[in-house]
Amino acid sequence: MKRYLITGGAGFIGANFVKYILGKYGSDVDLTILDALTYAGNLGAIAAETALPNVRFVKGDIGDRELVEKIVAEHDPDFVVNFAAETHVDRSITNPRLFLETNILGTQNLLEVCRKAWLTGKDAAGKPTYREGKRYLQISTDEVYGSLPRDYDTARELELTPEVKKVAEGRTDLHTFGSGLFTEDTPLAPRSPYSAAKTSADLITQAYAETYGLPVSITRCSNNYGPYQFPEKLIPLVINNILEGKKLPVYGRGENVRDWLYVDDHAKAIDMVLRKGRQGEVYNIGGFNEEQNITIVKTIIDIIRSIMENEPAYRKLLRHPLENIDHGLITYVSDRPGHDMRYAIDPTKIATELGWYPETPFRTGIEKTVRWYLDNPEWTADVTSGDYRKYYEEMYSNR
Ligand SMILES: NC(=O)c1ccc[n+]([C@@H]2O[C@H](COP(=O)([O-])OP(=O)(O)OC[C@H]3O[C@@H](n4cnc5c(N)ncnc54)[C@H](O)[C@@H]3O)[C@@H](O)[C@H]2O)c1
C-alpha cells in the first residue's frame, strides 16, 4: 500500500487527483491531505473522500515546520505531492509577497522535512542515502518557461513525431499557433510574480536533488480545466457569467494561446510520474489542445446556448433570457501587464518514457466541464462568497 501526503488537496487539481487516486487504487492507498483552505481551497470538493477511513484532512500551512514534521512522522508518506500554492497570476500582480512565501518557502519547508525524515545515512562515497520508495513531487507549471511567440494568425496542423504518434492513439485534428513548443530543456524565463515564484520552487527542488540527493521529480503542466476549478479562472468564470447574464471579460483581443489539459489526464500523468518516473527528472505535461482565449469563450457560449435550447430543464439556472446567450456577451478589457502570448507543451518525454499522452480532445473535455458546472450550481454558489464578489469588482470593473 502506498501512503501519500497531498498538499493543496482541497484545490482544483489536488481535489481531482485525490478522486483519481481513490478511483484507481481504492482502499489500497492511504491519503493525508494538508491544505490551508485559502479562498481557493474548498473542503466541499473532497467531502466524500475525507469521510473514507483511508483518507484524512489536516487544515494547515505547508510552511508550518512543526505541523509538517508531525504529519510526516505520524503517517510516513511514500509520496509527497505538492499542489499547494498561490496560483492566480492577477493576484500575484497585486500581492507578490504572499506568492513568494507560499510557493517558495512553503516548498522548501516540505523538502527539508522530507530530507530529514527519509535520510538513512551515507553511502561509501559519502553521499546521503534515503529510504527506498520515497518520492517528493513538485507540481510546477509551463509558465516557468515564459512565453512563446505566436507565429501563425490561424492554427496549422501540429505534426507529431513518429515516437509520439505511436503513443498518442486516437488523437487527431491537432493544431498549433507556432513553430516552437516548450521542452524540458527550454530555458526558464518566468515573467510574472506567480511564475517567478514557481520557478524558484523548481530550482530549490532541483537543488535538494543535486545537493542532498533527495528523491524528487518535477512536473510542468499546461493550463488545466475540468470540475471544481475556482471561478476566477477563465473557463468557470465564463460559464458562471453566462448563467448570470454578466459580460464576459476577455483580455486584450483574446488572441493569447494556451494549451488546455483536461484535469483527469493530468492526474493520470502525475500518478505515472510518481510510480514510474525517473528520480531527479522534469516531465512536461501538455494537452495537445492549443486554443485562443477568444475561441474558448465563444465555444462555451455556443455549448451553453445549445444545451439550454435542447434541454429546457437547465433553463432554471439562467438569471436572464436565453436569447441573450450569444457572442455579444463578450467584452474586451485592457490586457494584463506582461501577459504571456502563447504556451504550448511538447510532451515527447513523458509519452516516450512513460507511455502517457493527453487522451481528451478539447471539445470532449469542455463539454464534460460545462455539464459538470450546470449539474453542480451549488458548488459555485458556495465558493463564490462575498470576498470573491469584492475581488471580482476590483479586477474587472473600470478596465
Ligand atoms: N490550474 C492550472 O491550470 C495549473 C497549471 C499549471 C500548474 N498548476 C499548479 O498546480 C498546482 C495546483 O493548482 P490549482 O489550480 O489546483 O490551484 P488552486 O488555487 O485551485 O489550489 C491551491 C490549493 O492550495 C492551498 N494552499 C494555498 N496556500 C497554501 C499553504 N500555504 N499551505 C497549504 N495549502 C495552501 C489552497 O487552499 C488551495 O486548496 C499549483 O501548484 C499550480 O501552480 C496549475
Average of pLDDT: 94
How many beta strands in the DSSP annotation?
16
CATH topology grouping: Rossmann fold
Low-confidence residue ranges = none
Portion of residues within helices:
40-55%
The biggest sheet, with number of strands, parallel, antiparallel or mixed sense and barrel status, is:
7 strands, parallel
- Shape designation: globular
Bound molecules: nicotinamide-adenine-dinucleotide
Number of helices: 14
Radius of gyration: 21 Å
Distance between the termini: 52 Å
Which labels suit this protein?
single chain, 399 residues, alpha/beta, Rossmann fold, seven-stranded parallel β-sheet, three-stranded mixed β-sheet, 14 helices, globular, binds nicotinamide-adenine-dinucleotide
Walk me through the structure.
- The chain is built from 14 helices and 16 strands.
- It is α/β, with parallel strands linked by helices and 399 residues long.
- It has one domain: Rossmann fold (3-Layer(aba) Sandwich).
- A seven-stranded parallel β-sheet has the order 3-2-1-4-7-10-14, with helices on both faces. The chain has a three-stranded mixed β-sheet with strand order 11-13-15. The protein has a two-stranded antiparallel ribbon with strand order 5-6.
- β1, α1 and β2 form a beta-alpha-beta unit.
- The longest helix has 23 residues.
- The chain is globular.
- Bound molecules: nicotinamide-adenine-dinucleotide.
- The site of nicotinamide-adenine-dinucleotide (NAD) has 30 residues, from α1, α5, β7 and β11.
- The site of nicotinamide-adenine-dinucleotide has 30 residues, from α1, α5, β7 and β11.
